[in-house]
Design goal:
Elements: E1 9-18, H1 27-48, E2 51-59, E3 63-71, H2 90-102, E4 110-118, H3 130-138, E5 144-150, H4 153-161, E6 169-171, H5 176-198
Parallel strand pairs: 1-2, 1-4, 4-5, 5-6
Antiparallel strand pairs: 2-3
Length: 204
């Protein structure tokens, strides 16, 4: 009898963080929330027997990859990594994250990609165009899920024009309390995502 190969679920979760100057007053809250999200992901991964790998990007005037596809059980705090300064190269951040994660081999396991983008303002400093990002998103396979948090209804329209799925765009209040609500929303969405994965779905 031919042995069966273990069906192994691997989730690649990306946190794409606005690191423009306007986020500076929320730095402590952002670090606290991201570290808490990583701890939550670690607990969920263990409980649901799903491997989770995390990448964290920050976009200000330029895009920086702070952590790339690292096992969630071994992730450090971003306290010494996240620094808010500069403009808002949101499109460049999304393009870079998608390009980088597209390089991840998807051999012998069931892989899925979940990207959260979180910004307090509009795009104002990217080299890539809205059309580039929109085409890139529309070409993604069904195992990619993208969500974005924006500060207003006008920004929601901009995010949709950038190619983000309308149903996955949330407006948030750019205050310390708003940061907490974003954290709660990400936890709920991630839980739904991992539960769906355990039932054979590839994305939300």
């Amino acid at each position: 009898m031919k042995p069966k190969r273990l069906k192994h679920l691997i989730n690649h979760v990306v946190l794409l963080l606005d690191a423009s100057s306007s986020m500076d007053h929320l730095t402590d809250q952002v670090i606290k929330v991201v570290d808490a999200q990583v701890a939550y992901l670690a607990r969920q991964s263990t409980a649901m027997n799903q491997e989770t790998r995390v990448s964290i990007y920050a976009f200000g005037s330029k895009v920086e990859c702070l952590i790339y596809d690292m096992d969630v059980l071994r992730l450090p705090s971003i306290k010494m990594l996240y620094n808010a300064d500069g403009m808002t190269a949101l499109i460049d951040g999304a393009v870079q994250a998608i390009k980088d994660l597209s390089l991840v081999p998807q051999l012998y396991s069931d892989h899925a990609f979940l990207i959260y983008t979180w910004t307090d303002g509009q795009e104002n400093h990217s080299h890539n165009t809205r059309s580039t990002l929109s085409k890139m998103i529309s070409a993604l396979a069904d195992n990619w899920t993208l969500g974005v948090f924006v500060p207003s209804k006008a920004d929601k329209a901009q995010a949709e024009a950038n190619g983000f799925p309308a149903s996955n765009i949330e407006v948030w209040d750019t205050t310390a309390k708003g940061v907490e609500l974003v954290s709660d929303k990400i936890k709920t969405t991630t839980q739904n995502f991992m539960q769906a994965r355990s039932k054979g779905e590839r994305g939300l």
